[in-house]
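Example (one chain per record):
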Amino acid sequence: VQLVESGGGLVQPGGSLRLSCAASGFTFIRYAMTWYRQAPGKERELVAGIRWSGGSIYYADSVKGRFTISRDNAKNMVYLQMNNLKPEDTAVYYCNAHDINGNSIGPWGQGTQVTVSS
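Predicted structure:
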């Protein structure tokens, strides 16, 4: 299993970024996909999740209305569109895959750094 995140960067408050996660080494369509983030000194937290069909989606309260998770099963990709970014969104963002019991199957990758600052 390999998960490679990209798309992070430095953005001003109110700006947007689109994160991408390239997945390989497993049957992508069989697994739910998630985005997590970890800010300095804090635990990793779940930001958004999407089932294999894209039909059931979860968002943390802190990002509802601002972030959108999506997936392209033909390309084995999952995305996180982040709008109206806030300084508190600053973190390293990671993706992972989960089986039907919710267990993650992938090792945590390098993540992609998102910094929101003026």
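Caption: The CA atoms of residues 3 and 43 lie 20 Å apart.
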